């Protein structure tokens, strides 16, 4: 092995030597000289800098050291047998977190939005009827995606923070006869956790599948996939699950799988096609897994560790099961006091306290502030810190005009 000093000198020489380009001629190969014309950007010659922030918004949340360490473990191949073993662990962890025995359970390589599109792309075909409950931004997104796919989209609409009664849902199901009904369990743009009991039974009565978004609520509010007859459930890694952004657990019931694997046409997305993903995750009963895409190995390491922490700390989660109102435990929404500029409040808190709060999202923009204390961040000390920062901002920014 060459000494480190020799390797360093060789590296410096390579940087100084112009690039060569080989050109074939009738007399042989002539090596012409060329050099890079675009210099290396100055920013890439500096070390990476990322400030520490208290992430007390609606997500992502601060990641515990144990999960960070798991994500920093040496990379292994995404098709190695050891990786498949870790993926199997993840599947079992998701089944526990979702409280489901569904075989078709996996983690998407992407954010919660990826899981949302995966569900829609695989279940809904062009021309089919879809019913979407809209009481914040996520219902709006699902409606738009469904329209882009060519579905016949029908909506139930409430102002941000409003919720739908089972009677309202049943009336709309009877009228529109959709193949899929979408409901957001944790509407982070409004701070609402929506009741789910009975909705699955009503959907099945009308031969409709129930799709539930739990990105902001899973691990913070009670949700029992099998008991509540939810057909497709998905979440994201970066909120109460406390892993870095980039993976998204999802599960499909037998009813959903029957619809999904008996389509007339293939899904519009190859990457999100569950025919391939079910094999990649070992869910299709075939003896071998074949290459589909390169999964986020480090992201899966971190997700597996976060699911392990969830399995170990179920007692702490049960505290939230006692909540009886519709406030989302993971994201608290506060009406913007009259006379304040909400952007100035947020900027002041970030500058002077290194704390991230956020404003509204989608239809709730300009209406409220959102404070999230979930997973690793959910403790009394952080709650006191958040309140103190908000109090300070209200004192210092009180002369601002909205």
Structural write-up:
This protein has about 400 residues and is of the alpha/beta class. It folds into two domains: about 55-60 and about 320-395, Aspartate Aminotransferase, domain 1; about 65-310, Aspartate Aminotransferase, domain 2. About 35% of the residues lie in helices and about 15% in strands. The protein is built from 13 helices and 16 strands. A hairpin with a 4-residue loop joins strand 8 and strand 9. The model is unreliable at about 15-20 and about 315-325 (pLDDT under 50). This is Alanine--glyoxylate aminotransferase. Keywords: Aminotransferase, Pyridoxal phosphate, Transferase.
Care to give the gist of this entry?
By secondary structure, this protein is an alpha/beta fold. The protein has helices at 4-16, 65-71, 81-98, 112-123, 137-148, 166-176, 199-205, 254-260, 274-280, 297-312, 314-317, 342-353, 380-396, and strands at residues 20-25, 28-33, 54-55, 104-109, 129-134, 152-157, 180-184, 186-187, 192-193, 209-213, 232-234, 247-252, 331-335, 355-356, 358-359, 368-372. The protein starts with a helix and ends in a 6-residue tail after the last helix.
Q: How much of the polypeptide forms β-strand, as a percent range?
A: 15-25%
Q: Structural class, from helix and strand content?
A: alpha/beta
- Unreliable segments (pLDDT under 50, ≥5 consecutive)? 16-22, 315-324
Globular, elongated, flat, extended or rod-shaped: what is the shape?
A: globular
Give the fraction of residues assigned to helices: 25-40%
Number of domains: 2
Terminal CA distance: 67 Å
CATH fold field value of the largest domain: Aspartate Aminotransferase, domain 2
Task: Let me know the average pLDDT.
Answer: 89
